[in-house]
C-alpha cells in the first residue's frame, strides 16, 4: 500500500491534518511531534505508507539511508547542539511491544538541553 486514507501520518503528509513542518522533499516529510519529550522532537516519515520497520525490504534501503543521512542535518537546524557535547537520539518504535502507536514508519529525532528522558 502506498497510501492509507485512514492513516494519521498519511493525512498529515497530505495536509489534511495540520502539523508544524520542519522539512519536506519528494520522498520524505518531517514535522514536530505534538507531545514532545524534549526541547527538540520531530518525526521524519517517508511519504510512502510503510507500516513499520517490520515491513521494510531491500527496495527501501535507499529511502532509509536518506532518512539516516538527513536526520543529523535536520537535528542541527531544529536546534540540537553539535556533536559531541550536543547530539540527539533517533528512535524507531516498531510494533505493539516496540511501543509503536502510529503504524506509518517514522523516526523520532529528539534532543536539546537536558534534563529529558523517555523511550
Ligand atoms: P510512536 O509511539 O508510534 O513511535 O510515536 C507516535 C508519535 O506521534 C507520538 O510521539 C505522538 O506524540 C505523535 N503524534 C500522535 N498524533 C499526532 C498528531 O496528530 N500530530 C503530531 N504532530 N504528532 C502526533
Ligand atoms: Zn500512512
UniProtKB/TrEMBL annotation:
Domain (HIT) ranges: 8-119
Species this chain originates from: Rhodoferax sediminis
Coiled-coil positions: none
Renumbered ranges of motif Histidine triad motif: 104-108
Active-site residues, record numbering mapped to chain: 106
Recorded GO MF terms: catalytic activity
Highest taxon, organism lineage: Bacteria
Protein name listed in UniProt: Histidine triad nucleotide-binding protein
Database matches in Gene3D superfamilies: HIT-like
Amino acid at each position: 500500500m502506498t497510501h492509507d486514507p485512514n492513516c494519521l501520518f498519511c493525512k498529515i503528509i497530505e495536509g489534511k491534518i495540520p502539523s508544524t513542518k520542519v522539512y519536506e522533499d519528494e520522498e520524505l516529510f518531517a514535522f514536530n511531534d505534538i507531545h514532545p519529550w524534549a526541547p527538540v522532537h520531530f518525526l521524519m516519515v517517508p511519504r510512502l505508507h510503510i507500516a513499520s520497520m517490520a515491513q521494510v525490504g531491500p527496495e527501501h534501503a535507499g529511502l532509509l539511508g536518506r532518512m539516516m543521512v538527513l536526520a543529523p542535518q535536520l537535528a542541527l537546524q531544529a536546534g540540537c547542539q553539535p556533536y559531541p557535547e550536543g547530539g540527539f537520539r533517533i528512535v524507531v518504535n516498531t510494533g505493539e511491544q516496540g511501543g509503536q502507536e502510529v503504524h506509518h514508519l517514522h523516526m523520532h529525532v529528539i534532543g536539546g538541553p537536558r534534563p529529558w528522558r523517555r523511550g
